[in-house]
Amino acid sequence: MENYVAVSEFTRQSIVEHLRIPPERVHTIYHAINTAHFRPFPNARAYVAEQYNLSFKQGEIYLLYVGNELPRKNLKTLLHGIALLRETGYAVQLIKVGGASGQRWREQFLMDIGQHRLEDIVTIVQEFVPDSDLPAFYSAADLLVHPSLIEGFGFPVLEAMACGLPVVCSDAGALTEITGNNALHFDGRNVDSLVASVQRGIDDSALREDLRQRGLLRSQQFSPALFTSKLLDVYQKAAAQ
Q: Which label site among 13, 23, 62, 96 has the fewest CB atoms less than 10 Å from its CB?
């Protein structure tokens, strides 16, 4: 008898609902993360500045987005939120890492940046960023902002937590499931909700430190050993059927 593995409970429920597979045949096993690789990176800003020709200005708050520019990633709302934050006196900068997943989406992203007059606020890292350098970017930022409208898992939020970066993310898809109560959440379809959560993360240094510590602990729960153990259990049960 066929069995299936889903990477989150959100994905599992979607599979059961849309593909009409009996729920007992779909098992949730979370992706693993290598915390020996994704961990706080020492002197991260100096490294990123040298390797990617970026500058970090004194007194600025650096938000990080890691991912592509597809519509479901909801970057329009993120840019709108950054514009509102700037208007209210928050000295925020956005660093964007990751390919566009299509020239049309890069063109749209650039148009949206121009619409909000954020050309000097948004830095798109044009170079390919290898996996080995991602911990440096996570460690160099002040907050990760992940505004997706749907996510089956959400690697960037978990990678950020493993690197000690506080996470501000939407409550869509599996994101709240993956982060638990170890991140600040917002309604991805409501720019005011995004702004309020980012403001909390900026204004409350004690909260940021608490999120950093809890995120580090949370990331330890997604170990390769646990993934392997649960997957082996599914194989054994399937073989016995």
A: 23
pTM of the model: 0.95
Fold (topology level) of 38-220 = Rossmann fold (3.40.50)
**β-strands 4-6, 92-97 pairing:** unpaired
Residue 70 and residue 39 in contact, taking contact as beta carbons nearer than 8 Å: no
Tokens coding 14: 């979607």
Q: Find residue 185's DSSP bridge partners.
A: 169
Q: What is the pLDDT of residues 116-160, one digit of tens each?
A: 999 999 999 987 899 999 999 999 999 999 999 999 999 999 999
The packing angle between helices 103-115 and 75-87, to 10°, is 20
Contact 1, 235 (CB under 8 A): no
Give the separation between CA 28 and CA 15, rounded to whole angstroms. 11
Q: Can you tell me the distance from the alpha carbon of 37 to that of 13, in angstroms, rounded to the nearest whole number?
A: 31
194 touches 148 (CB < 8 A): no
Helices (H), the chain: 9-19, 44-52, 75-87, 103-115, 134-140, 155-162, 175-179, 191-203, 205-219, 224-240
Is 42:187 a contact under the CB 8 Å cutoff?
A: no
Sequence ranges of the domains in the chain: 1-32+223-241, 38-220
